[in-house]
Amino acid sequence: MKLKSLRLALFAATAIASAAVFAQAPIVIKFSHVVTTDTPKGKGAERFKELAEKATKGRVKVELYPNSTLYKDKEELEALQLGAVQMLAPSLAKFGPLGIKEFEAFDLPYMFPDKSVLYRVTEGAVGKDLFKKLESKGITGLAYWDNGFKVMTSNKPLRMPTDFKGQKLRIQSSKVLDAQMRALGANPQVMAFSEVYQALQTGVVDGGENTTSNVYTQKMHEVQSHLTVSNHGYIGYAVIVNKKFWDGLPGDIRGQLETAMKDATKYTNAIAQQENDQALEAIRKAGKTTIYVLNDKEKAEWRKALLPVRKEMESRIGKEVIAAVEKETATLGYK
Ligand code: LMR
């Protein structure tokens, strides 16, 4: 009898001890992305980590994997769906291959005359609808993070559409970006972000398009002699999580993480423009790249060459999404 109760006491003590260990083990969120920590997205991810760990008093640990250290572009989304990582922030251009082509509306040339139109779209019905479409893919959308408008880079000046003839230019995996480059007479090449620098350096591609913060932090300007400030298109992100993981979190934790994400989003969107402006200045100072800002006549030529892409891609992306964006543009007084 004595031995039995001793065994029972021992069993109970072990159970309590392992429950305590279990309760203390933090919930780990692996957050993978492809840019450096010194970019709007990289800084946003760091801010989210800081806020999330503080709000949950360490019950959640956010592990950051920047600069493609864990996964490259395409692998990222697969890893999230499999649950190998819990959080990502891929650019909106990378959702087409997932079967949600409406995201490619964000890639259309000259779709957003400025950030105010963009925010109305991401924070309005279109933004919500796109997140709803992610659910069937096992993904929950949490926020839209800004980066900025794109520049073109190459080893020759790209001022008029005729300058693009025969240029091999790297694009993200978006059919709209493919159509955009073809409309300019260029030869688009889909390539993972982490491979761009080397491809530029070795001449596998002649150039590409990106935001200045991405160009600078990947050192692309060191192997590109010309940069054109064209603002012809946009790069932004959807911060997404594995739906099963997210739904399985204790309600209080999920709430704290949602608040942390809201604050991290405000921060990221507030710094995005200045990060890109500073990057352009840093590229100028580095002295290896000639920076050219399109004049009005050149801008008009670019628009003439690129606007037909909207019509061309309408059946792929969906008339409704394009119309919804155009409505916001018109509401704000743009033509
Ligand atoms: C690119 O692949 O050029 C960008 O989407 C990278 C990024 O995440 O900003």
CATH class, anyone?
Alpha Beta
- Total count of strands: 11
From the alpha-carbon coordinates, what is the Rg to the nearest angstrom? 23 Å
Q: Assign the structural class, choosing from mainly alpha, mainly beta, alpha/beta, alpha+beta, or little secondary structure.
A: alpha/beta
Low-confidence stretches: none
Average residue-wise pLDDT: 94
Overall tally of domains:
1
Neighbour order of strands in the largest sheet? 7-6-8-5-9-11
Instruction: List bound small molecules.
Output: (2S)-2-hydroxybutanedioic acid
Shape: globular
CATH architecture: 3-Layer(aba) Sandwich
**How far is it from the N-terminal to the C-terminal residue, by CA?**
89 Å
CATH topology annotation: D-Maltodextrin-Binding Protein, domain 2
Element string (H = helix, E = strand):
HEHEHEHHEEEHEHEHEEHHEHHHH
Q: What does the main sheet amount to?
A: 6 strands, mixed
Number of helices: 14
Can you tag this structure with a few keywords?
single chain; 335 residues; alpha/beta; D-Maltodextrin-Binding Protein, domain 2; six-stranded mixed β-sheet; five-stranded mixed β-sheet; 14 helices; 49% helix; 17% strand; globular; binds (2S)-2-hydroxybutanedioic acid
Task: List the SSEs and their pairings.
Layout lengths: L1 H23 L2 E6 L7 H16 L4 E6 L7 H10 L4 E2 L26 H9 L1 H11 L3 E11 L1 E4 L13 E4 L3 H9 L3 E4 L5 H7 L4 E4 L1 H6 L8 E4 L4 E9 H5 L3 H36 L3 E4 L2 H11 L1 H5 L1 H4 L1 H13 L4
Parallel strand pairs: 1-2, 1-3, 6-7, 6-8, 9-11
Antiparallel strand pairs: 3-10, 4-10, 5-8, 5-9
Helix pairs in contact: 2-10, 4-14
The structure holds (2S)-2-hydroxybutanedioic acid (LMR).
(2S)-2-hydroxybutanedioic acid binds next to loops.
